[in-house]
Amino acid sequence: MRIAVLLKEVPDTYSDREMNLETGLTDRSGDVVADEVSERAVEAALRIAEAAGDSAQVEVEILSVGPESSADSVRRGIAMGASEAYVVSDDALVGADVTLTAQVLAKLVEKQGYDLVVAGGMSSDGAAGVVAPFVAELLGWPVLTNLTELSIDGDSVRATQASETATAELSAQLPAVVSVADGFADPRYPNFKGLMAAKKKELNTVSLAELGVDPEDFTHPRAIMVDIERRPERERGEIIDGNSTAATRLVDFLESKNLI
């Protein structure tokens, strides 16, 4: 059995993030990391492999679309325990929308021949949350999303989907696409051996030509950025000091906002 994990490099959420107001693209020249929810997807795949045991020969491999500079982030998946990584990098993919990204990933999945695709539910930069369903649609496979537990039972994938109001038990026939939520188990920390192995590992590069994807083919639906502007800075609110008039002023303020 072969499992593909979709891993994305994103700007570090603990650093300042800027967007180019002319192109609408996120500035990725600063601190970048493997997206945490992608690491949770790697964890989900590794748990399936461990549960199957050595005799089952379950292979976990990383798939990524991004610049050549994203190699260190991709190697994070190798350090955690994945065996191979495939990266599609092309200048024509700069600023690719979710439909083009999904098309590239679906073609790569077809080319490599996987049984299960595991993705993070929503990246911390774009936060679209639709890449996994788009990939499944292009492949013609079933998709289970927003999962907090995941396992394989014979030729089926079984999962738990939790929300604020309900918990659902789901299943689908393989091959399938699944995405895990932030509520999935925390990703493991790579050990020293894994880090050294990842550092030496040669990543497999794949071109758009090999996949037969034309990024300029607009017969496929594409999302195009037409405008972007900075969010207005928050105005300084009124400060009510704790003096003898504070209670009255607070009541007046709440009343002006129709809160009482």
From TrEMBL:
SUPFAM superfamilies in the cross-refs: Adenine nucleotide alpha hydrolases-like
GO molecular function: electron transfer activity
Cofactor: FAD
Keyword Transport: yes
A single GO cellular-component term on record: cytosol
One Pfam family here: ETF
High-level lineage: Bacteria, Bacillati, Actinomycetota, Actinomycetes, Mycobacteriales
The organism of origin for this protein: Corynebacterium ureicelerivorans
Quaternary structure and partners: Heterodimer of an alpha and a beta subunit.
InterPro entries to which the protein is assigned, alphabetical: ETF_a/b_N, ETF_b, ETF_beta_N, Rossmann-like_a/b/a_fold
Protein name: Electron transfer flavoprotein subunit beta
Family: Belongs to the ETF beta-subunit/FixA family.
